[in-house]
Amino acid sequence: MARSVENAPNYKERLLVSGREDEFYFNSYERSGSVLVSFARKNVIDEFLNPIAAVKGFVWALYIGPSILPFKLENLQSIQSDYVLSFPTSDQVTISKNEQDLSEKQVQASYLEAIINYTYQKNSNSDLFNQGIDEETLKQTKTEYKDYKQFRILGLGILSFFLVTLTINYFVVNHLNQVAADYEQEIAGYQENFAIIDRTKQEKQRKLVLFQNSGMQSGNLLSYYADEVGVTVPKEIQFTEMELFPLAQQLKPKHKVETDNSKIIIHGITINSKVLDDWMEDLERKEWVQSVEVINYSRLDDFNSIFHIIIHING
User: Fold this and answer.
1) Is residue 35 within 8 Å of residue 103, measured between CB atoms?
2) Using H for helix, E for strand and C for coil, what is the string for the chain?
3) For site-directed labelling of 209, which of 61, 86, 230, 297 has its Cα 20 to 30 A away?
4) pTM for this prediction
5) For the sheet containing 237-244, what is the strand order?
6) Residues whose CB is less than 8 angstroms from the CB of residue 232 and which lie 6 or more positions away in sequence, other chains included
7) What does the buried/exposed string (b/e) look like for 59-82 if buried means 16 or more CB atoms within 10 Å of the residue's CB?
8) Euclidean distance between CA atoms 135 and 63, whole angstroms
9) Mean pLDDT of 5-14
10) 80-115 pLDDT, tens digit each
11) How far apart are CA 163 and CA 167, in angstroms?
């Protein structure tokens, strides 16, 4: 609703037929003689303001009706829109419902919002015009807006801090995981080397036991027998294998190595059986030889034969 009333301290009360003053929003344009007032019930206007507040919008000013139109427009006799504003004197303003058709030269209602915004932005500090939100409410709104803005800035700062921290943490954890994987791979290599060293030590121990049980450490028996056999071998005989003190049985894990110190096993090639027989007779004449046993003798070709003999040593 819009009215033009006498400029008196209690003009708002005389405008209201029913209801209290704090139940209405008022816009007013004051002159010394009269006041142009636009007003509406708060419960009606709040239906439009509540959705704004729901999305964290803040209302700085509220304009109701045509009371702002003469605010910047000067030297006019009247302004016509949905209402007709007349200016009989410099101190008087009247308002009435416009019952006539609007012409192109008149201010159309669709332009009203743009005119209000323009005029108030240009003269927002004027004492003549009072917008619909009272100073106390406006002050509270500005305080809430300031707090909300600081909260948003602080919130964005905290979120940015945590985002940067999480990003850095992500890359650091990935780097540490990669370093740990590299160390695990390196440790696995060391463990494999340790296993090889351990197997080598076990093999060394096994061979030491074999050596101790073979009799090699007691005098020069092996070299003696090897020399004795070697000096008796005729040139017509060639050795392919000679085994001194062969194993008494197959090697078994965690079993003592045992050798037969009473045998020398020889594999070789001879041109004929006579040469082999003569050599065996020479061996049997040795004091340390108990007997010579032929295990195998077979013809290899027209010129050579292969043999396998065992020399039994006196105990």
Assistant:
1) no
2) CEEEEECCCCHHHHHCCCCCHHHEEEEEEECCCEEEEEEEEHHHHHHHHHHHHHCCCCCCCCCCHHHHHHHCCCCCCEEECCEEEECCCCCCCEEEECCCCCCCCCCCHHHHHHHHHHHHHHCCCCCCEECCCCHHHHHHHHHHHHHHHHHHHHHHHHHHHHHHHHHHHHHHHHHHHHHHHHHHHHHHHHHHHHHHHHHHHHHHHHHHHHHHHHCCCCCCHHHHHHHHHHHHCCCCEEEEEEEECCECCCCCCCCCCCECCCEEEEEEEECCHHHHHHHHHHHHCCCCEEEEEEEEEEECCCCCEEEEEEEEECC
3) 230
4) 0.33
5) 237-244, 263-270, 305-313, 289-299
6) 279, 282, 283, 286
7) eeebbbbbbbbbbeeeeeeebbbe
8) 15
9) 77
10) 555 555 656 655 556 566 666 655 434 444 445 445
11) 6
Could you tell me the two tokens for 212? 């101790």
| Structure tokens that stand for 41 in this block | 């019930």
